[in-house]
Design a protein that fits this description.
It is a single chain. With 291 residues, this protein is an all-alpha fold. The chain has one domain: Hypothetical protein af1432, CATH 1.10.3210. It has 15 helices and no strands. Helix 6 crosses helix 10 and helix 9 packs antiparallel against helix 10. The structure holds fe (ii) ion (2 copies). One fe (ii) ion binds next to helix 4.
Length: 291
């Protein structure tokens, strides 16, 4: 299989030309019978598998250069990949897409559901090349480890930019841990609803944080709805998010959220997504969930 195109630019688009059937797509993630992959959108399996990820790394020197800078040999960790596809990625997608219907109409019109679906479903792909000793470290990350973790958004972008993903999805992935105030002088909470700054990034970022707080991870327990919402309320009050985006999350949590540990995940948000398309804690916990 060749990875050059007519312009000579290296890409892995050819890699994604053939369809993967849903059953075989899940096979590479391990114990398919016992793990819960019900929330996983198998359309993403073409990106989230060892072979594709190897190609993404092979064709883009930037990825190995960054990792060399940290003196880390690149190794694709299938445990982390398995965990991402069965938990955090589909949950972030469900939360983000589930929030859309609770946004005010003038804000909803700014939402790009397709980019939001792609970005939530793939945003943390680079975590598969970050050592498990850092990803699942039970204690506080040291400065060097934090620096590596903070690179995962940019690395995810670098991995996916040679694929067939569109620019809007890629830009959301690259920015998913950036503060909105990094790009804008005005404070989002002072904006009118008509001018919510990059609503897609705010939804992605809020859904990502909420999903991480609500998840059980090797280094922390899951947080209750109330506590997780309180953490995000604080960030909203501090100007990171627009209050109407926070209100949408609260309504989603009240009406649609399915507890990932007591009930099977139901893809309610997917129905809404299709409808839209068709129509047109502790300090340690905060630190870990912020990266
Ligand atoms: Fe992330
Ligand atoms: Fe994430």
């Amino acid at each position: 299989m060749g990875f050059g195109n007519s312009s000579g630019q290296v890409c892995v688009k050819d890699f994604f030309s053939s369809k993967i059937d849903n059953k075989s797509a899940l096979k590479c993630y391990g114990d398919v019978d016992n793990a819960d992959y019900s929330g996983f959108d198998t359309n993403f399996s073409k990106y989230l598998n060892e072979k594709s990820i190897s190609e993404m790394i092979r064709v883009n020197d930037e990825i190995s250069n960054v990792m060399k800078g940290f003196k880390i040999n690149i190794k694709i960790n299938m445990n982390i990949l398995n965990n991402l596809v069965s938990n955090h990625l589909p949950q972030t997608t469900n939360i983000a897409l589930g929030m859309i219907k609770y946004l005010p109409r003038e804000v909803k019109s700014q939402v790009n559901p397709n980019a939001l679906k792609n970005a939530t479903g793939l945003h943390d792909i680079a975590k598969v090349i970050i050592p498990e000793s850092i990803i699942n470290k039970p204690g506080r990350l040291n400065e060097d480890e934090l620096k590596i973790m903070r690179e995962h958004a940019r690395l995810s972008y670098e991995m996916l930019k040679t694929t067939d993903l569109d620019a809007d999805s890629l830009n959301l992935i690259k920015a998913h841990h950036q503060s909105h105030q990094d790009h804008h002088t005005s404070n989002p909470i002072l904006q009118s609803r008509e001018e919510v700054t990059n609503v897609n990034l705010q939804i992605l970022s809020m859904a990502d944080i909420y999903s991480a707080l609500r998840e059980r991870r090797s280094y922390k327990k899951e947080m209750s709805k109330e506590d997780a919402l309180a953490v995000i309320k604080k960030e909203t009050d501090a100007g990171k998010f627009h209050s109407c985006v926070y209100d949408a999350l609260v309504k989603y949590s009240e009406h649609d959220e399915v507890d990932p540990y007591t009930e099977r995940k139901t893809p309610k948000a997917w129905g809404l997504f299709k409808y839209i398309l068709n129509k047109g804690k502790t300090e340690h916990q905060k630190e870990k969930t912020a990266v």
